[in-house]
Write a structure and sequence with these properties.
The protein has 199 residues and is an alpha+beta fold. Helices cover 34% and strands 26% of the residues. The strands form two sheets. A seven-stranded mixed beta sheet has the order 1-4-3-2-7-6-5, sandwiched between helices. Strands 8-9-10 form a three-stranded antiparallel beta sheet, with no helix packed on it. The longest helix has 28 residues. The chain is globular and about 55 Å long.
């Protein structure tokens, strides 16, 4: 049986966060949050939670967004790094300010596939499944962008590590980037719909 969500005012994204949905009650938009072993609701919107979490980990959302632009040149629906130390990345399914935007943490995705018309079914590492209103091609594009962001950031860290070896104690091993990139590329190749185009 599905657990009832725990209500909370404040929520910071963490390595267990899988997905944050917008939910509406009249004119109010709040958040429904799924972690690997937990389920929460928050009175804040998903975008507010993302911005607060960026602040919690030492940067503003705008700063993270500018970092993405600098590293991979993406400004539309940009993936962002929430916390570089734990390699917590997230991408939006729509414009971040949209009331319909869902925030997805790809490190927890086991696989995904197209269902119905322009919908994608995601299976997470804990076997939970969710269906979102997003084409497979658009979803693949967001996965690829997040993988590229991870790779570019890790390349920067490797350069810093080679110049300043003492930094190794503060950042995860560079091999994590290769493993993540290989994982994302495998998912994309298994799920790519070559006839569909990104919006």
């Amino acid at each position: 049986m599905k657990k009832e969500p725990i209500s909370t005012q404040f929520y910071e994204v963490n390595p267990h966060t899988m997905i944050i949905f917008p939910k509406k009650s009249g004119s109010i938009v709040y958040s429904e949050i799924y972690e690997v072993d937990s389920h929460y609701t928050s009175k804040f919107t998903p975008f507010e939670l993302i911005k607060t979490s960026c602040n919690f980990f030492g940067s503003s959302y705008e700063g993270r967004k500018e970092g993405t632009k600098h590293l991979i040149g993406v400004t539309h629906k940009p993936p962002i790094i929430i916390d570089p130390v734990t390699s917590t990345y997230v991408f939006p399914t729509a414009a971040p300010s949209s009331e319909d935007c869902i925030w997805i943490f790809p490190q927890h995705i086991k696989n995904y596939k197209t269902v119905g018309y322009n919908h994608t079914l995601i299976t997470f590492s804990n076997q939970q499944t969710v269906e979102i209103d997003m084409s497979l091609a658009s979803f693949n594009n967001q996965i690829a962008r997040t993988s590229m962001l991870h790779m570019k950031f890790s390349q920067k860290m490797r350069m810093m590590e080679s110049n300043f070896p003492s930094m190794n104690m503060f950042f995860p091993p560079a091999t994590l980037a290769a493993e993540t990139r290989r994982y994302y590329n495998t998912m994309i190749s298994e799920n790519k719909d070559s006839d569909d185009k990104d919006e």
